[in-house]
Amino acid sequence: MGKRIGLEASLAVSEAVKMARADAVAAYPITPQTHIVEELSQMVADGDLDADFMVVESEHTAMSACCGASAVGARTFTATGGPGLALMHEMLYIASGLRLPIVMAIVNRAYSSPISIWGDHSDVMAQRDAGWIQFFAETGQEVFDLTIQAFKIAEDKRVLLPAAVNLDGFTLSHVIEPFDMPDQEEIDAFLPAYEPQVILDPDKPVTMGAVGFPEIYTEIKKQQNEALLGAYEVILEVWEGFEKAFGRAYHPVESYRTDDAEILISIAGSTACTARVAVDNMRDQGKKVGLVRTRLWRPYPFEETRAAVKGAKAVAVMDRCLSFGGPGGPICSELRSALYPLPEKPVVNSYIVGLGGRDITLQDFYTVVEDAERVLSEGPPDEYQYKMIGVRE
Amino acid sequence: MADEMPTWREYPMAAIILEPGSTAKYKTGDWRSRRPVLDSSKCLKSKCARCWIYCPDAARRVDEDGYFEVDLSHCKGCGICARECPPGAITMVEEGE
C-alpha cells in the first residue's frame, strides 16, 4: 500500500503525471500554475520521469506541441491557467476535434483587466464549449486522483477526448495537504499504457486535421458530441474501478447534508471546504441547509444534478465567474436549464462571489442563504438575474 | 446527393484520412480562370525545370518528350510557372479564349 505524506497540491499534480508515466509534456509557465511544470521539468532533468519536456514560447504553442505529441501516440500532459488558457483557445478545439486524449491541469486564475494573478473560474468558463471533459477538484487528494483518472478516461477507446482538471489558483494549488500517495505498482495496475487507435507514422501515413467541407463538417461534429456524451458512462465506470482499487468514491455531483435540506448551496472547487463549515454552523442554528458541489462539468451530469436538488425549495448557486449582462453565473445558468423541463423545481438564485481571488468567507454563505430565504418568502426582486456578493456600495 | 453520402457513424474518427495521396482523386482545376500555355520551342526542359519546382500544387509533370506539361485537373492558374520561366516559354491565357 501507499504512504501518507504532506505535499503541495501543485506538486501532487506533477507526481500524478510522473506516476502516470507521461511520455510528453509541453508547457509555458504562468502564475499560479508554474510549480506544476517547474517540478515536471525537474523530474525529467533528474531522470525520474522518462518524458520529452518541450520548452515552448507560448501557451498556443504548448497546446500545439501537445497535439503533435498526442497524435504520434504519446501520453501527453500540460498545465496552464488564466490568460495562458485564453492563449490556448484555438488549439483547445483542435485537440478535441482531432480526438487527442491530452490531459491538462487548469490552475484557475482571473482574466485581466485589471491584471489579476488570483483565482476565479472566468478562465475555464470561457473555454467551456471547447469539447473537453472537465472536472473541478475540491482538495489536493482529488487533484491527484482526477489527474490519474483523467488519463484513463480520455484514452479509453470509447472516448478519445482531451480532459481538464480544474484546481483553484493559490487557495488549492499552493496549499500543502496530507495525501494518501499510492505505490507505483498500484497506479500501473489501474492505468495501463496508452494504446492509440490511429497515429501519425511515416511507415503508415495518414492525414489528421484536413479540410472538412460543409458536406461533412456537421457529421464530424456529431461524432465528437456523441463521444463526449458517451464519456459519461466511461467516467462512472472508471470511478467505480478507482474506488475498488483505492477506496475513494467519486461522483459527478457531491452532496453534503442535503437529505432534508430546504436551501442548497451550489458551488464548484475548493470553496466547498468553507461551504461545509458554513452548512454545519447553519445546521447548528436549526436551518435546513445543504451543499451540492459540481465535480463533473463536461459532459454535464443532468440526472445527478436533478436528483441532488430534488426536494429543495431553493438553490443558491455561487459562481466564481461573472457572465457580463447574461442570465447568471455559468453554473447557475446551466442548473436552471437542467431543471427547466421538470414540473416541480426549486427557485434557483445566482450569486457571484470570489472574483479575482477575493476571499469567500463564512459570512458570504450566510448572506446568500438569507437572501434565498427572503426570495422564498417575498419572491425574487425584479432588478437582477444575478447578484454580486460582497461588493462595497 | 445528401442521401448517398456517409452518415456520421461511417466517417473515420475526426475525419482522419487513412489513404495517402487521396487528394489526387479530387479534381480542383475548375477553380482556375487562366491557364498556362507552353511554347515548346522556347522550353529548356530538364536543364531548367523551374515550373516543376515552383508549382505549389504539384500540377506539372514530364511528358514523353521531356517537356513539362500541366495537369489541368489540378492547376489553379496562379501563374507562378509563367512568372518564373527564364526563357518566357509560358503564357497565361484566359479560360474560354
From the structure above, extract its key features:
heterodimer; A: alpha/beta; Rossmann fold; 6-stranded mixed beta sheet; 13 helices; 19% strand; B: 97 residues; alpha+beta; Alpha-Beta Plaits; two-stranded antiparallel ribbon
Summarize the structure in short.
By secondary structure, chain A is α/β, with parallel strands linked by helices. Chain A has 13 helices and 15 strands. In chain A, the strands form three sheets. A seven-stranded mixed beta sheet of chain A has the order 3-2-4-5-7-6-12, with helices on both faces. A six-stranded mixed beta sheet of chain A has the order 9-11-10-13-14-15, sandwiched between helices. A two-stranded antiparallel sheet of chain A has the order 1-8.
Structure report:
The complex is a heterodimer of chains A (393) and B (97). Helix content of chain A is 40%, strand content 19%. Chain A has helices at residues 9-19, 34-45, 59-71, 83-87, 89-97, 122-125, 140-155, 184-190, 214-246, 272-284, 302-309, 330-339, 362-378, and strands at 3-8, 24-27, 52-55, 76-80, 103-108, 133-136, 163-168, 176-181, 253-256, 263-268, 289-294, 296-298, 314-319, 347-352, 386-388. In chain A, the strands form 3 sheets. In chain A, strands 3-2-4-5-7-6-12 form a 7-stranded mixed β-sheet, with helices on both faces. In chain A, strands 9-11-10-13-14-15 form a 6-stranded mixed β-sheet, with helices on both faces. In chain A, β14 (347-352), α13 (362-378) and β15 (386-388) form a beta-alpha-beta unit. In chain A, α3 (59-71) packs parallel to α5. Chain B has 97 residues and is of the alpha+beta class. Chain B has a single domain (27-94), classed as Alpha-Beta Plaits (2-Layer Sandwich), CATH 3.30.70. Helix content of chain B is 10%, strand content 16%. Chain B has 2 helices and 4 strands; from the N terminus they run βαββαβ. Chain B has helices at residues 50-54, 80-84; strands at residues 34-38, 60-62, 68-70, 90-94. In chain B, β2 (60-62) and β3 form a beta hairpin. The mean pLDDT of chain B is 91. Classes of the chains: A alpha/beta (393), B alpha+beta (97). Chains A and B meet through α9 of A and loops of B.
